[in-house]
C-alpha cells in the first residue's frame, strides 16, 4: 500500500528484508526524509508489518545513530510529476521504444534534497513550504533559466509561473541554501536575459550558493526532417497523447486571440519593450538550435567578467559555465582551482577538468609500452 516503506536491509536480527515500516511513533511516513527526521530521537517506536502481522519495535539509540535500515525506494506517496512543458525537455527528445521509466517526468523537491535533482518549484504547495521549513531541507536545487518572469514562462512552457526570486528569498528566510542552474538557449536567454538573471541571483548570495549555466542540449530525435522545431512546436510535443498525464495541470499555453502584427515580428523590435503576451509569442517562434563556437565563447566571456567581480566581493566565483561551453567553443578547460571545489560537478561543471587531471596522474604511472597489444575502454 502507498503509505508503506519497504525495507531493503536491516542489520539487526529482529527485522527482515521486505518488512514494511508503517510509522515511526505517531508519524506516518511519506518518504525516507520523514523516516530520518523521525529517527533523530534517542528513543523511537517503529510500527512494522510482516505479512499479516504488525509489530512495534522499541529502539534506544544515540540521536545521530544509524540503525541500519535501507529502503527499496526513497518515496512512497507517489512521485511528484512535472507540470511544465519545457521546449528543451530531454524526455521529449528520447528515441521511442525505451523502457518506460526513462520517459517519466519528475519535478519532486524531495529528490532535489536527497540527490541534487534540479526542480522548478512551479508545483510547490503551502504544505510543501511548511514541510521544508519544519525539516530544514537544505540545500535545494532549482532550475531558473531566466529570472524574468515572462521569459521563464516561455522556457517552462507555461502561461505563467511563480516569481522564482521571491521563492528563493523565502528559502533564505527559512535558512535554506539554494544551488541554481540556467539552461541557456541562443537568441532567448544567452545575452541580456542572462546578464539580468546572473546579477539578480547574485544579489541573493549567500542564499544562492552557485549558478551553473548549461547550453541547451538537442538530439536528432527532436527534429522534423531537417527543419528545427520552434519553441512553440517543442512545447506542444508535451500535449501529444503519450505525454499527457491526468495529474498534470491543464491550462492554455498561449492566448491565440493575441496575435501580433507582422511588423512587430521584425528583428528590430526589442523583446524587452514588448508586453508579457507579446514576448511569449515572439520567443515561441524562435527556432531551437545549439550554440555556435563564437556564441559559446561569448557566454564564457560574459560569465568570466562576473566571476572576477564575485571573487572580489564574495570570495567565490559563484557562477560557472558548464564544461560543454568550453567544448563548443574549443577553448581549454579552466584549472581545477577555478571551480571552487566543484559544487556543481554532477551538473557537468568541472567534470571534464577532473577527468583530465585524473588521467594525467594515472598516465605518469603507466608503462612506456605494453608487452602485448591491449584494448582499453574508457
Automatic annotation (TrEMBL):
InterPro entries associated with the record: Aldolase_TIM, DUF512, Put_radical_SAM-like_N, rSAM_sf
Protein name from the UniProt record: Uncharacterized protein
SUPFAM superfamilies xrefs: Radical SAM enzymes (SSF102114)
Domain DUF512: 287-369
Annotated Putative radical SAM N-terminal domain residues: 61-211
Any one Pfam family match given in the protein's UniProt record, by short name: DUF512
Domain of life: Bacteria
Amino acid at each position: 500500500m502507498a503509505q508503506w516503506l519497504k525495507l531493503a536491509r536491516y542489520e539487526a536480527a529482529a527485522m527482515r528484508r521486505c518488512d514494511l515500516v508503517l510509522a515511526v511513533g505517531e508519524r506516518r511516513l511519506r518518504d525516507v526524509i520523514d523516516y530520518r527526521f523521525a529517527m533523530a530521537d534517542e528513543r523511537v517506536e517503529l510500527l512494522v508489518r510482516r505479512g499479516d502481522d504488525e509489530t512495534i519495535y522499541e529502539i534506544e539509540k544515540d540521536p545521530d545513530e544509524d540503525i541500519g535500515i535501507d529502503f527499496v525506494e526513497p518515496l512512497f506517496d507517489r512521485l511528484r510529476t512535472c507540470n511544465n512543458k519545457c521546449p528543451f525537455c530531454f524526455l521529449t527528445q528520447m528515441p521511442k521504444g525505451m523502457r518506460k521509466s526513462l520517459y517519466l517526468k519528475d519535478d519532486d523537491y524531495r529528490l532535489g534534497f536527497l540527490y541534487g535533482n534540479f526542480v522548478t518549484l512551479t508545483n510547490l504547495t503551502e504544505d510543501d513550504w511548511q514541510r521544508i521549513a519544519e525539516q530544514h531541507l537544505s540545500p535545494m536545487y532549482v532550475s531558473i533559466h531566466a529570472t524574468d518572469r515572462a521569459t521563464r514562462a516561455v522556457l517552462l512552457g507555461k502561461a505563467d509561473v511563480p516569481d522564482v526570486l521571491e521563492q528563493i528569498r523565502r528559502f533564505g528566510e527559512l535558512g535554506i541554501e539554494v544551488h541554481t542552474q540556467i539552461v541557456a538557449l541562443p537568441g532567448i536567454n544567452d545575452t541580456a536575459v542572462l546578464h539580468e538573471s546572473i546579477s539578480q541571483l547574485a544579489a541573493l548570495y549567500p542564499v544562492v550558493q552557485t549558478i551553473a549555466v548549461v547550453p541547451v542540449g538537442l538530439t536528432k530525435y527532436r527534429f522534423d526532417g531537417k527543419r528545427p522545431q520552434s519553441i512553440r512546436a517543442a512545447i506542444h510535443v508535451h500535449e501529444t497523447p503519450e505525454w499527457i498525464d491526468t495529474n498534470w495541470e491543464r491550462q492554455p499555453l498561449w492566448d491565440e486571440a493575441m496575435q501580433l502584427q507582422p511588423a512587430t515580428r521584425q528583428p528590430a523590435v526589442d523583446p524587452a519593450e514588448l508586453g508579457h503576451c507579446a514576448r511569449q509569442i515572439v520567443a515561441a517562434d524562435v527556432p531551437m538550435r545549439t550554440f555556435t563556437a563564437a556564441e559559446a565563447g561569448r557566454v564564457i566571456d560574459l560569465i568570466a567578467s562576473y566571476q572576477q567581480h564575485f571573487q572580489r566581493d564574495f570570495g567565490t566565483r559563484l557562477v560557472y559555465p558548464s564544461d560543454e561551453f568550453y567544448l563548443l567553443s574549443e577553448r581549454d578547460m579552466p584549472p581545477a582551482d577555478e571551480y571552487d571545489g566543484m559544487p556543481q560537478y554532477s551538473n557537468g561543471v568541472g567534470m571534464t577538468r577532473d577527468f583530465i587531471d585524473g588521467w594525467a596522474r594515472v598516465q605518469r604511472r603507466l608503462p612506456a609500452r605494453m608487452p602485448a597489444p591491449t584494448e582499453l575502454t574508457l
